[in-house]
Write a structure and sequence with these properties.
It is a single chain. The chain is an alpha+beta fold and 396 residues long. The protein folds into three domains: 119 residues, Butyryl-Coa Dehydrogenase, subunit A, domain 1, CATH 1.10.540; 111 residues, Butyryl-CoA Dehydrogenase, subunit A, domain 2, CATH 2.40.110.10; 143 residues, Butyryl-CoA Dehydrogenase, subunit A, domain 3 (Up-down Bundle). It is 50% helix and 14% strand. The strands form three sheets. It has a four-stranded antiparallel beta sheet with strand order 2-3-7-6, with no helix packed on it. A three-stranded mixed beta sheet has the order 1-4-5. The protein has a two-stranded antiparallel sheet with strand order 8-9. The longest helix has 29 residues. The radius of gyration is 21 Å and the shape is globular. The termini are far apart. Its cofactor is FAD. It holds the Pfam family Acyl-CoA_dh_1. Belongs to the acyl-CoA dehydrogenase family. This is Acyl-CoA dehydrogenase family protein.
């Protein structure tokens, strides 16, 4: 029985040619390498599909239109790639969000030598990075709660000790971009934090995998650091201003999270519609029943609304700094809602078959939950929109 339908949303038809061509290239590459059996195999084994990631990088989907010593890739281009990955190899899409963040940080704050050593292999797919920010005592409020310390030594290097939590891909990453508190600055929680590039092979780093319900093709890790020595040339950006530098990238991270969530929603809808067209009950397709149709239609409306939010937000971000960042917050919220709504509808449409681990709906259902709290909880996103867009008093 066919479980996948091909849909062509109206919003895709009007996509600018540059990004429509990119989308077609990504789909062609995925069609060449990805099968339902391959997706299911890596999800069930809880293993990262490294070869697929390398194929995508070799095809230019990490570097995109960025230059090694110039500006990074456009947000609109990143969103196209991530939506397509979200609809299929979702764990690779989540991993790519992390890679794009590393790419953006190295483009924005890396010096020439750091870009040659760390950014070039990211572009080519010869290296992967992990972003080590959150800690056991702090996720949303991580700056205030940051306990990982970077102590400067007499030779100018740093000794870093502490623990990071929920660090995607850290077990096999080639290097970490890691934040640690280097100064105690009175009256400021976000100052006094420095960003470091730390090769994963550096002595004193230990990682443990966290068992998770979703995104099982990308390990989430505890990272333990004990007297990890990092030379001064591996400081990324300005000492004591690392968290402020990361804040400048959060707009892009929200956009990219929204893109993967949108892809999950689209993949789930295509699966559910394909099932509804072919699954028979009472002598006719289950998709002919009004109640099921309404759920699928409502999901489709949420998907297209999220797509238009995302396109507007990515276009605004590419226009330059100072644009209205509430668009990215709205896009993330809309895409999260689309993903959780659509995967719930899909489970209802497929009924018992949605529970079957040999079909993708249960994977979409599990994976979609990530974006209710990452890269920022939906509740905090609402707080941000209330303050910045509606002009309401700050609620936290």
């Amino acid at each position: 029985m066919t479980t996948q339908a091909t849909t062509t949303p109206a919003a895709e038809i009007t996509e600018p040619a540059e990004f429509a061509d990119l989308r077609a290239r990504v789909r062609e590459e995925l069609a060449r390498h990805v099968t339902p059996e391959r997706l299911n195999r890596f999800d069930e084994a809880e293993e990262y599909d490294l070869e697929l990631y390398r194929e995508l990088a070799r095809a230019g989907f990490v570097k995109l239109d960025g230059e090694l010593h110039g500006p990074g890739p456009k947000h609109q281009a990143q969103a196209v790639v991530l939506e397509e990955l979200g609809a299929g190899p979702t764990s690779i899409g989540v991993s790519m969000v992390v890679q794009y963040m590393g790419v953006q940080l190295l483009h924005s704050y890396g010096n020439h030598a750091q870009q040659e050593r760390f950014l070039a292999p990211l572009h080519s797919g010869d290296a992967r990075m992990s972003f080590a920010l959150s800690e056991p005592g702090g996720g949303t409020d991580v700056a205030r709660a940051m306990a990982t310390r970077g102590s400067r030594l007499d030779d100018g290097s740093y000794s870093i000790s502490g623990q990071k939590k929920w660090i995607g891909g850290a077990m096999e990453a080639d290097f970490l971009i890691l934040l640690a508190r280097t100064s105690d600055i009175t009256g400021s929680a976000i100052d006094g934090i420095t960003m470091f590039i730390v090769p994963r092979s550096t002595p004193g780093i230990r990682t443990e995998v966290i068992d998770t319900v979703g995104i099982r093709g990308l390990e989430q890790c505890d990272v333990y650091l004990e007297d990890v020595r990092v030379p001064a040339e591996n400081v990324l950006g300005e000492v004591d201003r690392g968290f402020r530098q990361v804040l400048d990238t959060l707009n892009g991270e929200r956009l990219n999270g929204a893109a993967v969530a949108l892809g999950i929603a689209r993949g789930a809808l295509e699966t559910a519609v394909g099932w509804a067209r072919e699954r028979q009950a009472f002598g006719r397709p289950v998709g002919s029943f009004q109640a099921l149709q309404h759920g699928l239609v409502d999901a489709s409306v949420k998907i297209e609304s999220a797509r238009l939010f995302l396109r507007q937000a990515a276009s605004a971000s590419d226009a330059g700094p100072g644009t209205n960042e509430t668009w990215s917050a709205m896009a993330k919220l809309a895409a999260s809602d689309a993903a959780t709504t659509t995967t719930d509808v899909g489970m209802r449409v497929m009924a018992g078959w949605g529970f079957f681990r040999g079909l993708p709906m249960q994977r979409y259902f599990r994976d979609a939950r990530l974006y209710t709290f990452a890269p920022l909880t939906d509740e905090m996103i609402r707080n941000y929109i209330g303050e910045k867009h509606l002009g309401l008093p700050r609620s936290f």
